[in-house]
What does this fold into?
Amino acid sequence: MKEKQQNFRLYIPIYLVVATIYIIAGFIEPTFLSWNNNVNLFTRITPLILAGMAQTFVILTGGIDLSIGAIIGLTNVVAASLPYINTPLNIILWLFIPPLFGLGAGLINGVIIAKKGLPPLIVTLATSAILLGITLFIMPIPGGTVSLSIALLLTGKLFNIIPVPLLIFSFVIFIGHFVLRKTEFGRSLYALGGNETIAYESGISCTKVKILVYGISGLLGSFAGMFISGWMFSADPLIGEAYVLNSIAVAVISGTRLSGGKGGVVGIIGGAYIFYLLNNILNLLGIISFYQYIAKGLVLIIALVISSPITSFNWRNYLSRDIQR
Amino acid sequence: MAVATSTEKKNISLKMEGIVKSFPGTLAVDNVDFICKKGEIHGLVGENGAGKSTLMKILGGIHRQERGKVSINDKEQHFRNYSEAREAGVGIVYQELSLLPDLSVAENIFMGIWAKKGKFIDWDEIKTKSKEILNEININLDPEELVETLPVALRQMVEIAKVLTQNPEIIIFDEPTAALSKDEVTRLFRIIKKLKETNKTIIFISHRLTEVLDISDIITVMKDGKVVVTQRKEYFTEDKLISAMVGREFSKIFPRKTNQIAQEKLFSFDTVLDKFQKRVAFSLFKGEVLGIGGLQGQGQIELLQSIFGLGESASQKIMISGEEIRVKNPSQAIQSGISLIPEDRNSEGVFLILSILQNVTAATIDRRKKVGLIDKQKEKEEVNEITSKLTIKMTSYHQIAQSLSGGNLQKLVLAKWLLSNPKVIVMLEPTKGVDVGTKQQIYTLIRELAKEEVAVIVYTSEMIELIGICDRVLVMNQGFLTANFQGKDITEEKIMKASVSNVDILAKEKR
It folds into this structure.
């Protein structure tokens, strides 16, 4: 019990911010609080939550996945290029082929990073260019479509009450939390991000963990790509671009330390809300898109400053490291 | 104390008064006064973590004191960085060599203070000047030679030359003899004495007490951040120095050794170290505490790390309980019952940003599972048990490791490895930078482990630990195991002799 309290206490500030935004928005525009508007919001933040979670897992190990956007783009295009007539076989194909692409791309990232010891930043930047090329080869301009029943299901309501996107992201976050807390793999992620040398010398198989974590990132990215295809009822090869920065921002806002070892997935829903609502507010205020880019960048930097070691830790601890040598 | 006369005052080159410096969890230097005179060699001794290095780093401008003042030649100084201290006349010859091996002797000597002709570096000038400085300390060396090709002793001389280019008033030698042979030490001492004659102030830090007694005019002993005593060297004997350093009598710090060791061979190791290309083999009995001694950098760390699967050489052979095992990486080592307490706790021991629980369980995550998942209840119990056994001071096990003191951090590392139930536990410098209380606790723990029939291998650079805790001591010298002492044979003299003697002579004697 005590441990749980400890874990969740970390996320209180994030959800306080979300609550504050809700209250202010409700005052300005009462329809904001309406169920319909919220159902709409669930749909819009689902891909952001999926991408944010992919990024969080990777960042926890001390890595980063810049190819998440390209993976979302690729799987989005693949999902919308498959046969879309409503047959059971087609639906099965739609369910399994895009994740294979996502998982495959992620595992390739992981193998290059782990086996060759190359920096994730550059490797994923390079693979993201390759994936974008493949995506544009498959579908140069927005188009394609998915089966109608999939589209209706993804943005619909279960038993006409529970919005499916809410179910999807709650389930995924629950699984993510479970994996981080209860499995050997989850523990290893933190150890790896805490200090790779020590993790290795503690008998943790760093190579395996790294390959797996990029694979999971790719898989979650493909879920985001698939969801977008159902939601938009078509695909856009460049849809993923924005998710690179957005996923990092969500991970950082939700309390994950950029250099790894600290954080979790429980804050992600809050992080995604904050980031999305901020965009939304800027939109409503009629602010032109290039100011929005500036605002997004600033939010990321502010989140980093707030959570950076220099402000949240005693700086002396850092100095004392080189003394012991 | 008598009032200093004006001539005496004039002779004082360095005055450090009431210096205080703390690091998280430790008061590294606690209200220290330290005074040196011109033309005097001032020995500074103390155990690791006594505060010598911190004090010298304050003098060298690397750390800033929290309180107290530093004056050089009666002028108060406030160093903000290393170069300000250098300009004020403080030169430090470091123990770990700070030279760049790919550059020439001359380039190293004049690194950062290049002589220039117009906008360009004047190489001729640098070469002639390097030659001059090297001649000054009687070293015949081509300034164009690459540092890489020089033996350690000569590199040390280059290091000294480098410091001399800045024409310092105060020269600090931080363990300069650690890697030198006896002849080389004599040569170094000749240089130091020559520097003394030019009226420089010399501060000499060393763990080798005989050398300190030999060369110093005056000796200061530090312990736990405080100065214990400052006296002229005639006052001291080696025993007096040791008891001042340790602060209590020898027999009281160390637990009693067991008289009998089970004669059952538990572990044997046979390898050829890549670095030295020499065969090394030894074995251990159940419940034996084996010390590995010798000067620093003689291959001890490489040897012991290779037992744990770090930097394995192709030809190694490890046997545990009569069975040959393969250790290619730490994971295999842990599974075979081998643990390693690393030398540098901050970079290899503790996950500083992770919690106590995450740290303690890191080596055994895979061992507490219920239907494939981590058994949190069992985990909690084990962590509670081991942390209270080792008396780790903490508020809860969710506390972040970073906030613990050095002693508690080391206990955290020990806790982690004890949970893995090792049969053989290798400890590299297990008491480095921890307080005396924790040291004593670690010694007791080592004895307890031995009682539980664990074989313990200890590498320590502290002679008194080798003597105090080990049942048997092997001395390593240039990649060779040169001696094997047991029982009453474990003495400082014998270990020292085996450590510094020429390896080839020893090899011949063996034949």
User: Anything to note?
Assistant: The mean pLDDT of chain B is 82. Residues 252-337+422-510 of chain B form a domain with the Rossmann fold fold (CATH 3.40.50.300). DSSP finds 20 helices and 24 strands in chain B.
